[in-house]
Amino acid sequence: MSESAVYLDDHDRELISLLQHDMRASYQELGAAVNISASTARRRIERLVNEGALKLIAVPVWAKLGFTLTAFVGISVELQHLPKVGDAFAEMDEVTWVAMTSGVYDLFAQINLPRNEDLTTFITERIAVITGIREVETIMVPRFVKTFDEYRLPLKPNPLYGPQNGQRKKEEGAI
What's the angle, vertex CA 77, arms to CA 75 and CA 88, rounded to 5? Predict the structure, then answer.
């Protein structure tokens, strides 16, 4: 099932960029920075949230919270067990995200643990008990070069990728 893209104009992109930089900025500050009124900034942000194009969330800095081990886990699964194995990983507190993938692994996940020593416990006591797993590969992350929270939506869409990515014509439903 394909979701339709949400139209983003230059003001929307600027508002998103500003929120990515400072989530606590007031509508007054946001509107002034984009040269629109505070009420217009509020309506635009609410539209983006209501249409599912924007989530306003807090992103933990795991190392600052005592989770010093980050690892990626590639999981090969007996395909008839794929949904249940994916759900089992999604339920684990240690897993920050999990995705069904194509290629070498059927699932790929990120985990955060307090210490390196906890990886053995995670593998032997949390993963090993799940029915349907054929193989697991862990890749420890000593340092991120760019993190999820450092990504910024480009202020202008990249012309290499055509008109998708929220750039349908204004007459198709933009505010």
Answer: 75
State whether residue 41 is helix, strand or coil.
helix
Burial class from Cβ neighbours inside 10 Å (0-12, 13-18, 19+) for residue 85 reads buried
**Does 74 share its domain with 51?**
no
Element (H, E) at 90: helix 82-91
Same domain, 67 and 134: yes
- In angstroms, how far is CA 108 from the centroid of its own chain? 14
Residue type for 145, please?
A: V
Per-residue pLDDT of 59-109, as tens digits, reads 899 999 999 999 999 999 999 999 999 999 999 999 999 999 999 999 999
pTM of the shown model: 0.79
DSSP label at residue 102: S
Q: For residue 155, is it within any domain?
A: no
In a domain, 40, yes or no: yes
